[in-house]
Amino acid sequence: MGILEKFSLEGKVALVTGGAGLYGSCIVEGLAEAGATVYLASRNAGNCLKAAEELQRKGLKVIGAELDQSETESIARLKDKIISEQSKIDILVNNAVLRPMKSPEAIEDFDLSMKVNATGVVNVTRIFVEEMKKKKSGAIINISSIYGVLGTDLSLYEETEMSAGAPDYFFHRAGIINLTRYYAAVLGPYNVRVNCISPGGLFNNQDPRFVERYNKKTFLGRMANREDIKGAVVFLASDASPYITGENIMVDGGLSAK
Ligand SMILES: NC(=O)c1ccc[n+]([C@@H]2O[C@H](COP(=O)([O-])OP(=O)(O)OC[C@H]3O[C@@H](n4cnc5c(N)ncnc54)[C@H](O)[C@@H]3O)[C@@H](O)[C@H]2O)c1
Questions:
Q1: Which of 42, 117, 143, 218 lies at a 20 to 30 A Cα distance from 21?
Q2: What is the whole-number distance in angstroms between the Cα of residue 69 and the centre of ligand 1?
Q3: How far is the CA of 207 from the centre of ligand 1 (A)?
Q4: What's the Cα-to-Cα distance from 37 to each of 94, 161, 257, rounded to whole Å?
Q5: Which tens digit of pLDDT belongs to each residue from 5-61?
Q6: What is the CATH class of 3-152+166-204+225-257?
Q7: With the C-alpha atoms ordered 21, 23, 26, 29, is the resulting torsion angle positive or negative?
Q8: What is the pLDDT of residues 135-172, one digit of tens each?
Q9: DSSP E strands: which ranges in the chain?
């Protein structure tokens, strides 16, 4: 098989949690463009079905489904659905995130954040990985953030209505990077690779003052666009990266290298 064919995801089955969201929708599209059958799932099944229909109209194999990753039964139901429809799961992208905590003072929202962003991620992984172990094959990609590696720069947000974030986000984004290394170790013997991608900010019509300051912090002089994450996800999901596991790839235009 030539190297370009190894990037193909034809015949593979993928799940992207939170696949109707900002980065999730880019990831779903990238995996489907590479040939995978992709399930996109989050709490609002209607949104997922609508997002899937849009991509189906482009000829992509995308299926919308419901998932609340804070509930074990919901995760198990989705796993049963995918296995009954496809007989396997090759690729899991842990992308979903909930941002309930709006300020450092809102400690009452911390537990809910952990329920989804910590316990939920481990539970989704725990349940889906059983199928990968049976087949002795799989790729898991966790989505973190530059804020899993770096602290925040408060000057970016000055004079804007934007929030500089809350402590739970920095806590679980860093956690998911080292969780990646843990699972890479314990799943290596089953030929399941586990990697992480830490993207930078996706342009979403933020306050122009923020955008201008943010752009200056990157080597490439811009925020991420909808295409920027696709190549890294497809690479890590595919047979083009068979010896890469336990890695965290920064997809941030050089921001963290500056
Ligand atoms: N947007 C950015 O600029 C940015 C920057 C760096 C990293 N990231 C990372 O990208 C990933 C996605 O972030 P986003 O900004 O696209 O988020 P988003 O808010 O646009 O989407 C998050 C998705 O997760 C889903 N979700 C929330 N709670 C859930 C639950 N209990 N069960 C299942 N699904 C649930 C939501 O419904 C939504 O579909 C996260 O890992 C985030 O840290 C985003």
A1: 218
A2: 12
A3: 20
A4: 16, 39, 35
A5: 999 999 999 999 999 999 999 999 999 999 999 999 999 999 999 999 999 999 999
A6: alpha beta
A7: negative
A8: 999 999 999 999 999 999 999 999 999 998 999 999 99
A9: 13-17, 37-42, 62-66, 91-94, 138-143, 192-199, 248-251
User: Which residue out of 15, 16, 23 has the highest number of ligand 1 atoms within 8 Å of its CB and is therefore the one to mutate?
Assistant: 23
Instruction: Report the distance separating Cα 217 and Cα 230, nearest Å.
Output: 22
Q: Are 257 and 151 spatial neighbours (Cβ–Cβ below 8 Å)?
A: no
Indicate whether residue 95 lines ligand 1 (CB < 6 A): yes
Q: How far is the CA of 17 from the centre of ligand 1 (A)?
A: 9
Measured CA to CA, the distance from residue 196 to residue 181 in angstroms comes to 9
Q: State how far Cα 192 lies from the chain centre.
A: 17
The ranges assigned to domains in the chain are: 3-152+166-204+225-257
Ligand 1 and 199: CB distance under 6 A: yes
Is 201 touching ligand 1 by the criterion CB < 6 Å?
yes
Q: What tokens appear for 249 in the block?
A: 């790839």
How would you label 185-219 residue by residue, b for 16+ Cβ within 10 Å and e otherwise?
Answer: eebeeeebbbbbbbbbbebeebeeebbebbbebbe
